[in-house]
Design goal:
binds iron/sulfur cluster; 4 domains; 16 strands; 364 residues; alpha/beta; Lambda Exonuclease, Chain A; Ribosomal Protein L15, Chain: K, domain 2; 38% helix
């Protein structure tokens, strides 16, 4: 992450959960899930750049309402950048519009009846920063909108000082967080069960090991890729290509055999005389999906193992530590201990080991 220029999207991640933000933007750990894939699909649809907004004030006054898609704005002064899904520009007045795949927050009355809808805090922060960037670019911004695709509902927000202060304070808190250590997990929070990072974060396990003011309750946390597909193609002459977010498998005679959404694919194995297009290979690599080439007899010939998203800074610091004699043994020991602990946690979670084995792992 360029410390001088922060994407507003990262600040919104912080508003959602500081620990999630830290994993993703400081440590470079991303775990895709069906939710994140669907969110990206919706953004791809709306992120088709359109004409640039009018440059001069004169042009702005003369312009009629224009819809500018995928508009990137940057403020060196604030150290902030954002790509707006849509900006509705009417002369010198602009309305930022953000698209969300989910639903807005429901507002209930005392009897538990839904009486209205409001945007989520994380969406408020992101659209607030977008409004500030538009203002920095010389536009007047008094309202913003968030479109929730699951309900086809557009919510309007007033852009006032309260929203600006909330957005900028969250931005400042995210910057401070990025320079410190990883935040602790949320406690008994409804965000965790659906969070794609929970297998890495282990909120309930960590909270049960530390003292919190709230008693953590162990919940069933769902592994995000439990239903992942390991795709194997082995018929001679088969071709694997890509279309939108789907892998397309075609026979030698042009018959379409399968269409598999990428969101569910964990790996691809090509056995024997099977072809794959360069575009498909690039898309799979972008998503961290490995591809194995095997001979017709099933012997592994080569693997395309995508580079992960760990930042250059993290890699550089890791290599520096490994170069240091005195740190090597300590690091290796810590890694082995962490791996054994992790295996113990997985065994506990799946209830697949006796108390004797768990005790042995604890003391090993
Ligand atoms: S599992 Fe919970 S605490 Fe951990 S990153 Fe996700 S939302 Fe944050």
């Amino acid at each position: 992450m360029d410390p001088k220029l922060w994407p507003a999207r990262n600040v919104a991640e912080f508003a959602y959960c500081p620990r999630l933000f830290y994993y993703m933007e400081v440590e470079g750990i991303h775990v895709p899930s069906s939710d994140t894939e669907e969110g990206q699909r919706i953004h791809r649809r709306v992120d088709v750049p359109s004409a640039t907004p009018p440059e001069s004030e004169q042009d702005r006054d003369a312009a009629e309402l224009r819809k500018v898609r995928s508009l990137t704005l940057t403020s060196e002064r604030l150290g902030l950048t954002a790509t707006l899904d849509l900006a509705e520009i009417d002369g010198s007045v602009a309305v930022p519009v953000e698209y969300r795949k989910g639903r807005p927050r429901q507002v209930y009355d005392e009897d538990g009846e839904v009486i209205g809808y409001e945007s989520w805090p994380t969406d408020r922060v992101q659209i607030g920063l977008q409004a500030i960037l538009l203002e920095e670019a010389g536009y007047e911004v008094s309202s913003a909108a968030i479109y929730y695709a699951a309900e086809k509902r557009r919510l309007s927000l007033v852009v006032d000082d309260a929203l600006r202060v909330e957005a900028l304070e969250t931005f400042e808190a995210a910057r401070t967080c990025a320079t410190g250590s990883r935040p602790l997990p949320l406690v008994n929070d409804s965000r965790c069960p659906r969070c794609s990072l929970q297998p890495v974060c282990l909120p309930d396990e960590i909270n049960s090991l530390r003292e919190t003011s709230e008693t953590p309750s162990a919940r069933k946390l769902w592994p995000p890729r439990d239903d992942g597909i390991h795709l194997v193609t082995q018929r001679r002459g088969t071709r694997v290509g890509i279309r939108a977010s789907t892998l397309r498998v075609t026979e030698a005679d042009g018959t379409k055999t399968a269409e598999v959404p990428l969101a569910g694919v964990e790996s691809l194995s090509l056995v024997g005389a099977v072809q794959i297009s360069t575009q498909a290979l690039h898309t799979l690599a972008d998503r961290g999906i490995p591809v194995a080439y095997l001979s017709g007899a099933g012997r592994l010939i080569a693997c395309v193992d995508p580079l992960d998203a760990v930042s250059a800074d993290t890699r550089r610091n890791q290599v520096r530590r490994l170069d240091c004699e005195s740190d090597r043994v300590e690091l290796s020991r810590a890694l082995i201990v962490a791996k054994i602990r992790n295996q113990r946690v997985l065994l506990q979670r799946n209830g697949a080991a006796s108390a004797r084995i768990l005790d042995a792992l604890k003391t090993s």
